Request: fold
Amino acid sequence: MDPKKHVFHISLEGTTLPTHEALIPHFGYCFMKSALKFRKMLSEELARLGLIPPQMGVMVILSDAGTMNQIRLSEELHIDKATMVKLLDATEESGFVRRKADPNDRRVKLVELTAKGKALMPKLKRAREKTESEFMSPLTKTELKEMRRLITKLVRA
Amino acid sequence: MDPKKHVFHISLEGTTLPTHEALIPHFGYCFMKSALKFRKMLSEELARLGLIPPQMGVMVILSDAGTMNQIRLSEELHIDKATMVKLLDATEESGFVRRKADPNDRRVKLVELTAKGKALMPKLKRAREKTESEFMSPLTKTELKEMRRLITKLVRA
DNA sequence: TATTGTTATACTCTATAACTATA
DNA sequence: TATAGTTATAGAGTATAACAATA
Reply:
C-alpha cells in the first residue's frame, strides 16, 4: 500500500501556534516547525523588497560568483532547470538580474546581477539579519552562537 | 507586483547535496535545508511501516490523549479539517485508528488508536529515534543534547 | 549524440467553499 | 444560526518529458 495514496505533505505553514506537549520530544517535528516559521518570517520581509526566498538565493550566489549559467545555478541551489527558468524570468522582469549570451557557447546564457540587483544586496542582508535575530530572540547571545555553529556543522557534514 | 506570479515554493527535497559556500552564513537556508533532510530521512523510515510523518503525529497525539474529535485533532496539528479527513481515511484504511460516534453529540466522531495502532507505537518510536541519531551523527553527544535543548526553547517560545 | 535553455503537461498538494447532518 | 465532518474544486507548485538550437 502506498501511504501517499490519499494524503500528502502537510504544510505547518502559519506556524506561530502552540505545539502539543506529546510532540515536544519529537525533534524532527519541532525542527521542521521552527524552520517553516523562519521561512514564513523571511518571506514576509522579502515580499516588501519584491522577491521570494529562492530569488535571494540566486542573487547571493551571483553576488559571490559574478556570473553563472542557468544549469550551474540550478545545481548550486538544487532547483531543477525548468523551475530555474521561471525563477529567472521573474527575477529578470523585476530588473534584479539579466541574462546575456556566452560568447564561447551560443547555447549558454550567463546570468548576472544588474546595478539594481547589486544595490539590493545590502537590503537583502539586512532583511535576513533582522529575521534571524527576531527568530532567535528567545535564545541568549551564547545560545544563538551555539545554534549557528551546530546548524553549520550539520549542513557541512 | 506579486513576486509569486511566476515562481513558487522551492522544495530542496532530496537534499544531501553540498551547500554553496556563500549560503553557509545564511542561517535560515541551512536550517530549512537540514529540516528537509531530516523529513526525507524520517519519511523513508516511516514508509516501511506504511505511513507518512503527519500520520505519526496523529497517532502520537491519540496515544497521549486516548480519544479526540477531528476538529481538535486538526487544531493540535495545525492541519485543516478537510486535509485531516483524508489523513484519517488513509490511517483508518491501514487499520491504525478508528472513528466512532460520540454518544453526546451525533455530529462528532471520536478518533482512537486500534490495537494494531497501539502495537505500532513502539516501532514508530524506534524509527524516529533511529532517524534522529543518524541525522545528528555529525554532532558530539554534548552538542546533540544542546541542539535538542535549543530547538525546544525555540518551539516553546 | 549530448547539452542548454525553454515549453508543455501531468501530477501532487493546498485552501476554499459548499454541502449534510446535526445542535 | 452555528458546528462537525465531508466532498468538490480551483489554484499553487513540482517533476517529467519533449523540443529547438547548438555543440
